[in-house]
Design a protein that fits this description.
about 600 residues, alpha+beta, Complement Module, domain 1, 5 domains, 5-stranded parallel sheet, elongated
Length: about 600
């Protein structure tokens, strides 16, 4: 008999599924948001990846066409990437929409929070709001200008301050929002300055004895320069550094009324070499950019061992700055190979390598070229032949799901009195939306739907063979399923699915799923029949609809689904049966195998 996938739709949306992990939308180098959705896929984040990232690049020669990549990302690394958006680069900042050679990154947390937005929404999804710096106020009698990616106060926000005519700056002219030490909030590295009033100078000179020109402007910093109009009272000098140095100290000094400069000459300190964007076979989290004092912490992916120190700090050595100790490497203890296995060809796609396809050091780019197919796994767009084999398994090109899925799905709906007529209408609409997400045919997905209360309604049930190639008639038949009855006997419903539905027009060698939707506690035994179904090859999901009176048993729903990954519980009761939950259920139906 066909292996069976039973989805018990007893809607447990929020509080169970704790252990299933975050799911993000993933795509690689899509040319538009529409293409990203069409060619991308949902991916379950692994390990410490608890954020969804959107990356937008503008390549040289491609004009204003964006190259969009979406992926799972470790939270600290994602926020560190986003904090670099305002940093200096090819344009005014690293992130410049439509400017060639620029790259912009943003992060969010929550189920598919990066799927439909070109930029991540700050508060989208169920995860915590990203930490921010407290916004700085402009000085009185002055102004501020801040550069940031999404909102002022994001990590990496850079603010500069200036004073109105007749006032001079007392304090630092620039402040940057930096990530705090572990367990602390981020904060700006400098407090906002004050704008102090300068003496009024009249045409005749009211107090000429009190006004004095300064000596020559302070010396230029080594590896930097200054800009001064003159050395009269009230005039300021601005300092700057070269590309590989950072300004340390106040970037502006002013000539006071007494003829002295109000601060020393700042210094231009060397910066460490810029780190590669990705740390091979591991993760890197840094508390700054490449300034002296910045520290980076490294970790290796599962199966890899670290060679070297897990921490590296940017330190000054004479006139240079270096990372000390050097960044570690992540290696594997797997046996070495003389060459890698031949990749062969890729059905519905292409493999482009920069050398012999199985020679150590060769890098191959992999993509799907036929419409309606996407790469699985989606992040295996580039693999390298290493001394111990390919850096990742060869991907395949699979049909997009949804809408394509080779699966037989049984949907069981609770029609007991607690659901009520209004709730029943919402449940039917939800089921229709889930079915509507898929292609219904003998070559793709098929659906069987029936309701239960104290007994199974066989008169209105829809079996697999009823509408195998007609989604319109199938959806109409779902709409006509009546509502009445009392009692909640889920065990009887599961037994009917096992003994009748899955033995009627069930396709051989095609997965079977059964979703159970319920808002109550079953009055009969559910554990044994659920175990029997799983032992027989079925996958059972329980979707529990929270009820105002609290009549749901988490333990019973776990007995149906078998583990937390197969249980969903709604937070907002019957009102949760729409939108995001439809996507989540449809994603669970998808297999993402190479079909």
């Amino acid at each position: 008999m066909a292996s069976m996938y039973f989805l018990s739709l007893g809607l447990l949306f929020c509080c169970i599924n704790r252990g299933s992990g975050l799911r993000c939308w993933t795509c690689n180098d899509a040319r538009s948001e529409k293409q990203c959705i069409a060619r991308g896929q949902s991916e379950k984040c692994r390990g410490q990846a608890m954020s969804c990232q959107t990356e937008i690049r503008y390549h040289e020669g491609a004009g204003s066409i964006p190259f969009i990549t979406k992926r799972c990302k470790q939270t600290d690394a994602c926020e560190n990437n986003r904090g670099q958006n305002p940093g200096a680069a090819a344009g005014p900042t690293q992130c410049n929409s439509g400017v060639q050679n620029s790259v912009c990154r943003c992060c969010c947390r929550g189920f598919h929070c990066n799927r439909r937005d070109f930029w991540c929404s700050e508060n989208k999804g169920t995860g915590p709001t990203p930490k921010k710096c407290k916004v700085l106020n402009a000085p009185e009698n002055g102004s501020k200008q801040c550069k940031f990616r999404t909102l002022e106060g994001d990590i990496g926000t850079r603010c500069t301050f200036s004073c109105e005519a007749g006032y001079h700056l007392n304090g630092n002219s620039e402040s940057v929002c930096r990530r705090g030490a572990r367990g602390t909030k981020p904060k700006f590295n400098n407090d906002p300055p004050d704008c102090e009033e300068m003496p009024e100078i009249t045409a005749g000179g009211d107090n000429p004895e009190d006004l004095h020109d300064c000596d020559d402007a302070p010396a230029e910093p080594e590896n930097g320069g200054r800009s001064c109009l003159r050395n009269s009272a009230g005039v300021s000098c601005r300092y700057f550094c070269g590309d590989r140095e950072s300004l340390v100290g106040d970037g502006i000094v002013t000539c006071t009324r007494k003829g002295g400069w109000d601060g020393p000459t700042p210094e231009c300190k060397p910066r460490c070499s810029k780190l590669q964007e990705n740390f091979r076979n591991g993760n890197r989290v840094c508390d700054g950019e490449d300034n002296v004092g910045s520290t980076c912490e490294y970790s290796c992916n599962p199966g890899f061992e670290m060679i070297g120190s897990a921490t590296s700090k940017c330190v000054q050595r004479g006139k240079k700055a270096i990372w000390s100790p050097r960044a570690p490497t992540c290696t594997t203890s797997l046996p070495l190979v003389a060459s890698c296995e031949d990749l062969g060809t890729l059905e519905h796609g292409e493999i482009l390598c920069d050398g012999e396809t199985n020679k150590i050091g060769t890098i191959c780019e992999i993509s799907c070229v036929d419409r309606g197919f996407a790469l699985r796994p989606s992040n295996h767009t580039e693999i390298e032949c290493l001394a111990n084999g390919w850096s990742a398994e060869k991907p395949c090109c699979s049909r997009l799901c949804p809408p394509f899925a080779q699966v037989d799905v049984v949907i069981i709906m609770d029609s007991s009195s607690s659901v009520r007529k209004q709730g029943w209408g919402k449940m039917l609409s939800f089921v229709k939306e889930v079915i509507g997400s898929f292609t219904v045919s003998d070559a793709s997905a098929r659906f069987s739907v029936f309701r239960f209360n104290s007994k199974v309604d066989v008169d209105s049930q829809i079996l697999f063979g009823a509408f195998p190639n007609n989604k319109t008639n199938l959806l109409h038949a779902v709409e006509e399923i009546p509502y009445n009855g009392r009692g909640t006997y889920i065990g009887r419903a599961l037994t009917h699915a096992r003994d009748t539905v899955l033995k009627t027009d069930n396709r051989e060698n095609i997965k079977d799923m059964v979703w159970v939707l319920t808002d109550g506690i079953s009055k009969d035994e559910v554990a044994k029949v659920s175990t029997d179904l799983r032992d027989f090859g079925a996958e059972v999901f329980a979707l529990g609809i929270s009820h105002p009176k609290g009549k749901l048993s988490e333990e019973q729903l776990l007995s149906i689904g078998g583990d937390e990954e197969h249980v969903i519980i709604t937070e907002d009761g019957i009102n949760s049966l729409s939108g995001e939950l439809v996507e989540r259920v449809a994603e669970s139906i998808c297999d993402h195998s190479c079909i």
